[in-house]
């Protein structure tokens, strides 16, 4: 019976809310109905007492006429003119306060009310007077008082039921968008979340953020897939070189040939080591503690001769490194960024020049190639994806844009609000 009240679903919460509301409504109704009923009963009892006292003059006049110890003044009012004439149930309550009203079980059917006084008869004697009436003998006002009370109680029950139904409808209307949103979270994996325009602003804001988080999740999933594909390609190349050179070493005993294969293995292993370091730095976010450390950059870190061997005829490679340049990029990270940007520029530049500019605030690679063709997917190896991820990790902004005349520029700018550069630019 009470299982529906346990749990935290909307159905269970609504059941508990309606139960609590019903209890509060019943208690509140009782606190109003009971005092009101008691007021009516007490007021009626006081009116009976006043009605009984109003017969004092009639009882005195009646005694002058009949000179008897008992008189029935009305269908409900009796007069006694001596203690011996009183009924036993009245005698049991003696003595009575003179000129006062005494009530005995006045709220019950067998109760009665007594009014006691004295008067002087025509012979000059002090005569006691006792007026009695049954407590429930007469009702003042509407003869159907009990029916009126039942109608009032029925009206209260109706109001409670109506308000409970209204509360249920209001709760259902309020929780309907939440239920709908919960259903969409469980079943609609591909569609966007939506709620009614009449929903409260907070639910609409929540829905908007859920859609944004969903889009971000999907975008990150695609990026991770692309990242894994590019990382696989970048690592497979040096591994293939190492395996090939190792196999070739066993074919000849020529020292020169052996040395050449060892050099190929060392270069491929070194490149692979640098790539793995950068990948681990991104995936594990181990660079978080190093992101704020500034270091001086030297030209020895940039192997221009290695890049010049890849240039096409008629293309020059120049480096402009500002003196005392300090960056928060570790050497393997800077090498990976420059490698991808420079290789990307070499790939699309057939004549002219490629210029590398580095200072404490910016890193740029400008070429005179074919420029952007409407898509920025011009990566080489890990390419621009790796560059973007590294920029995010170390607080840099990345932008790839076309030059006014020809070619394009890949530019990294240290974010002015980033905590990583606070020690350098005095923020």
Automatic annotation (TrEMBL):
Protein name (record): histidine kinase
Enzyme class: transferase
Keywords assigned: Cell membrane, Kinase, Membrane, Phosphoprotein, Transferase, Transmembrane, Transmembrane helix, Two-component regulatory system
Pfam families: HATPase_c, HisKA
TM helices/strands, residue ranges: 17-42, 145-167
Keyword RNA-binding: no
InterPro entries linked to this entry: 2C_sensor_his_kinase (IPR050980), HATPase_C_sf (IPR036890), HATPase_dom (IPR003594), His_kinase_dom (IPR005467), HisK_dim/P_dom (IPR003661), HisK_dim/P_sf (IPR036097)
Catalytic activity: ATP + protein L-histidine = ADP + protein N-phospho-L-histidine
Subcellular location as annotated: Cell membrane
Membrane topology type: Multi-pass membrane protein
PANTHER family in UniProt: SENSOR PROTEIN CREC
Coiled-coil residue spans: none
Every Histidine kinase domain range: 230-418
Enzyme Commission code(s) on record: 2.7.13.3
One function term, GO molecular function aspect: kinase activity
Keyword Transmembrane: yes
